Amino acid sequence: MTVRFTGSDRAETERLRGEIAEVLTRARARTAGLTDCLDEADLVAQHSRLMSPLVWDLAHIGNQEELWLVRDVGSRQPVRGDIDHLYDAFRHPRADRPALPLLDPAEARGYVASVRDKVWDVLSDSPLQGSPLVTDGFAFGMIAQHEQQHDETMLATHQLRTGDAVLTAPPAPSAAVPISGEVVVPAGEFEMGTSTDPWALDNERPAHPVPVSAFAIDVAPVTNAQYQEFIADGGYRRRELWSERGWAHRTESGLEAPEFWQLDSDNRWWRRVFGTMTPVRPNQPVVHVCWFEAEAYATWAGKRLPTEAEWEKAARFDPATGRSRRYPWGDEAPDESRANLGQRHLEPADVGAYPAGASALGVHQLIGDVWEWTSSGFHDYPGFAAFPYREYSEVFFGGDYRILRGGSFGADPVAVRSTFRNWDHPIRRQIFAGFRLARDLRADER
Ligand SMILES: [Fe+2]
């Protein structure tokens, strides 16, 4: 069968090529920014046992790009067929990666550049339709998201690294409007997940109806000031606020405040932010707390974490049309007026900073600032099909993970949407995660 392109098909393919080139270029500029600022010793060092050496992330980014775009989509010869095993995340846990015979920084930079050169070739040859892997440029979008996700991981490594500050960015905005309290999300079914978002990953699919009882959700994530009240009220010492597992973890790990917080002799909290000590900003969402801390705070506040479905309904449901939106504010891509994304700032913005980013129901800052812990584990949606490989999501279903939603200041717009699902262990604190609270309605509110 001969496929006949109409003029508008050709224009659409060219538009898509341009978009792919833009997101790949943006990701690479960020990767360079996160690695060019450090010397060789800092790039090969392991700054935390939780993280890979940055030089591993760098070459792994290139290796995934080579496997999917150069070899699979492009059917080209390998650039480096001999190093796949070193950069296979499933073969080597992060703690073991420094001992591997990795490419050194200069070799890694040369490698990712050679791979990218071939990818430009593959992109100009690809029809961007036909097989599911290339339709709508999926594989290219997947690789751009992969690089940005590693960039966020590398940003977390920068936060863990001790030593002089090397990253700079303007401070995140203050509140534009005062916001507080909660909104009621009405009972009823909504459409969760997506079947149409071209670059959505397998775990976000397919769209399916989910019934949700009426509930209340906070208009903003929990702030540093609110979290300090929990600390001051003995939150970390009161056993009754913690679940059994949470208390065991709190005790064993000696948790007393969010990671990177320090109390000075005048009883003021400071926070180390990418190598700079800074007073804790009261109206910023709290960040670097684990799921167990979020759970204890919620108990203290007489509320609970939202389920994943509740979070997504609060973010997407438009009561006027009954439709689920792509983003809280509508279907248009994020921009600076709507969300704190893309490492434009090195911190969350104060609550109330993005009134233009509020959802139809009036919930603010669901996208950007901090990943938000939900009460839900990671499970497949009804009708799930692994694509393009089981290791993307399927092997993690049912594990000891909690779902995080919404993206952080360190997440790029290409890798964040209201259907996007992140997951991590409930003890993890190095990720840019905070939380917001929800609660059931009382009988007199229903
Ligand atoms: Fe990866």
TrEMBL record:
Lineage per the UniProt record: Bacteria, Bacillati, Actinomycetota, Actinomycetes, Mycobacteriales
UniProt source species: Nocardia aurantia
Name of protein: Hercynine oxygenase
Catalytic activity: gamma-L-glutamyl-L-cysteine + hercynine + O2 = gamma-L-glutamyl-hercynylcysteine S-oxide + H2O
Cited function: Catalyzes the oxidative sulfurization of hercynine (N-alpha,N-alpha,N-alpha-trimethyl-L-histidine) into hercynyl-gamma-L-glutamyl-L-cysteine sulfoxide, a step in the biosynthesis pathway of ergothioneine.
The protein's enzyme class: oxidoreductase
InterPro entries, sorted: CTDL_fold, DinB-like, DinB/YfiT-like, EgtB, EgtB_Actinobacteria, Sulfatase_Mod_Factor_Kinase, SUMF_dom, SUMF_sf
Pathway: Amino-acid biosynthesis; ergothioneine biosynthesis
Classification via NCBIfam families: egtB_TIGR03440
Molecular functions (GO terms): gamma-glutamyl hercynylcysteine sulfoxide synthase activity; iron ion binding
Every DinB-like domain range: 24-154
Enzyme Commission number(s) from the entry: 1.14.99.50
Family under the similarity heading: Belongs to the EgtB family.
Residues that, per the record, bind gamma-L-glutamyl-L-cysteine: R94, A95, D96, R97, D424, R428
Residues binding Fe cation: H60, H146, H150
This protein's UniProt keywords: Iron, Metal-binding, Monooxygenase, Oxidoreductase
Transmembrane region(s): none
Gene expressing this chain: egtB
Domain Sulfatase-modifying factor enzyme-like span(s) in chain numbering: 181-439
Cofactor(s) recorded in Swiss-Prot or TrEMBL: Fe(2+)
One Pfam family this sequence matches: DinB_2
